[in-house]
């Protein structure tokens, strides 16, 4: 069964590639880059899923040669790959597809432990019904933690507090979890997640694909750049843009160096004076840009969300593809439902487990 799914996924991917091949072109990274996944435009389109609204995924088994998990269900078992995602009603369909994609492409899917950061309760049943053997844990993330830190202007009030949950992973997860892969909810993994897990971070606390050709200036305001005390933070750092939707995080170092507090400090400054445009990304850039272990760009083929308003579709960046990321304002499930998909949205569909209401 599994090979059929894989094979059909591969065939549809291959077909799309063939169809698209003539139009594949490179474009300037700065244009392609849209910072974070949880955009502000779909709040009104929020819809509630009932537990019956997802199909059950087929079972996934470890291949021969996987390090056996000793204590099944034990989060501290050392032989596991840890993945953290947020889970909320708005992006639920995306998160479920992301999990499904990871399981389908992992050689050792039973060795992946999922950590779900939630602000809504009641999602546990849905997860275990959709993925009966999944090893996972839910963590409640209190939105008030963030509401205190973001100013209450109308636009910012629309921001999803869960966008900021990635800043609190190190505090929320058990101390025995020493490394985690953080993933946004609008992506699918099309390679073995163990390869990403095995990335060397060297002395660095986080790893992510870096984009040194992107215009770094635009993420911060003129006021920020003219204040030497602030902008001096980047002196001697060779700061490059990176997307916070795919990160490998050394949680021990994060805890040791207190990065949560460092990020919060910048958010407090932002609350009083505008040093960047809104988003959860800039404080990460302030703290980590220039101190990021580079990861192959194939692990974040981002920008596929394009722009819903303009109806623009994006192509893949040149090079290998291990992860497809629909960052930007368009989401594949919304475009597919409205029968106006972008060509690459067909690469997301094989992982969709949502049952359309009859
Ligand atoms: C980078 O962005 C800033 C601010 O938006 C702009 O003023 C500047 O011209 C841009 N630089 C390049 C090389 O595009």
UniProtKB/TrEMBL annotation:
<comment type="similarity">
    <text>Belongs to the glycosyltransferase 8 family.</text>
</comment>
<keyword id="KW-0812">Transmembrane</keyword>
<comment type="pathway">
    <text>Glycan metabolism; pectin biosynthesis.</text>
</comment>
<protein>
    <recommendedName>
        <fullName>Hexosyltransferase</fullName>
        <ecNumber>2.4.1.-</ecNumber>
    </recommendedName>
</protein>
<keyword id="KW-0732">Signal</keyword>
<dbReference type="Pfam" id="PF01501">
    <property type="entry name" value="Glyco_transf_8"/>
</dbReference>
<keyword id="KW-0328">Glycosyltransferase</keyword>
<dbReference type="InterPro" id="IPR050748">
    <property type="entry name" value="Glycosyltrans_8_dom-fam"/>
</dbReference>
<feature type="signal peptide">
    <location>
        <begin position="1"/>
        <end position="32"/>
    </location>
</feature>
<keyword id="KW-1133">Transmembrane helix</keyword>
<dbReference type="InterPro" id="IPR002495">
    <property type="entry name" value="Glyco_trans_8"/>
</dbReference>
<keyword id="KW-0735">Signal-anchor</keyword>
<keyword id="KW-0808">Transferase</keyword>
<keyword id="KW-0325">Glycoprotein</keyword>
<dbReference type="GO" id="GO:0005794">
    <property type="term" value="C:Golgi apparatus"/>
</dbReference>
<dbReference type="GO" id="GO:0016757">
    <property type="term" value="F:glycosyltransferase activity"/>
</dbReference>
<dbReference type="InterPro" id="IPR029044">
    <property type="entry name" value="Nucleotide-diphossugar_trans"/>
</dbReference>
<keyword id="KW-0472">Membrane</keyword>
């Amino acid at each position: 069964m599994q090979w059929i799914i894989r094979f059909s996924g591969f065939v549809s991917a291959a077909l799309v590639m063939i169809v698209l091949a003539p139009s594949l072109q490179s474009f300037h990274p700065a244009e392609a880059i849209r910072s974070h996944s949880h955009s502000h435009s779909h709040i009104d389109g929020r819809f509630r899923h009932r537990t019956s609204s997802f199909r059950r995924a087929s079972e996934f088994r470890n291949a021969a040669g996987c390090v056996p998990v000793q204590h099944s269900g034990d989060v501290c078992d050392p032989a596991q790959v840890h993945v953290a995602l947020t889970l909320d009603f708005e992006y639920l369909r995306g998160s479920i597809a992301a999990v499904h994609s990871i399981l389908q492409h992992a050689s050792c899917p039973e060795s992946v432990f999922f950590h779900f950061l939630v602000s809504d309760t009641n999602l546990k049943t849905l997860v275990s019904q959709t993925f009966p053997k999944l090893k996972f844990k839910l963590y409640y993330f209190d939105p008030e933690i963030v509401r205190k830190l973001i100013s209450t202007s109308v636009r910012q009030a629309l921001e999803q507090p869960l966008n900021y949950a990635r800043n609190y992973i190190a505090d929320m997860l058990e101390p025995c979890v020493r490394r985690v892969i953080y993933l946004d909810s609008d992506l699918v993994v099309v390679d073995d997640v163990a390869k990403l897990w095995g990335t060397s971070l060297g002395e660095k606390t986080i790893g992510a694909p870096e984009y040194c050709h992107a215009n770094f200036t635009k993420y911060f305001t003129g006021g920020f750049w003219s204040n030497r005390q602030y902008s001096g933070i980047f002196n001697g750092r060779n700061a490059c843009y990176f997307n916070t939707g795919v990160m490998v995080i050394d949680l021990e170092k994060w805890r040791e160096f207190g990065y949560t507090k460092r990020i919060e400090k910048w958010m407090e400054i932002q609350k009083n004076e505008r040093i960047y445009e809104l988003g959860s990304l800039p404080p990460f850039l302030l703290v980590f840009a220039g101190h990021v272990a580079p990861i192959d760009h194939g692990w974040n083929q981002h920008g596929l969300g394009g722009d819903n308003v303009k109806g623009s579709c994006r192509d893949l960046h040149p090079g290998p593809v291990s992860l497809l990321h629909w960052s930007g304002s368009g989401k594949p499930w919304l475009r597919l439902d409205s029968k106006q998909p972008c060509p690459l949205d067909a690469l997301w569909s094989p992982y969709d487990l949502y049952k359309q209401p009859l």
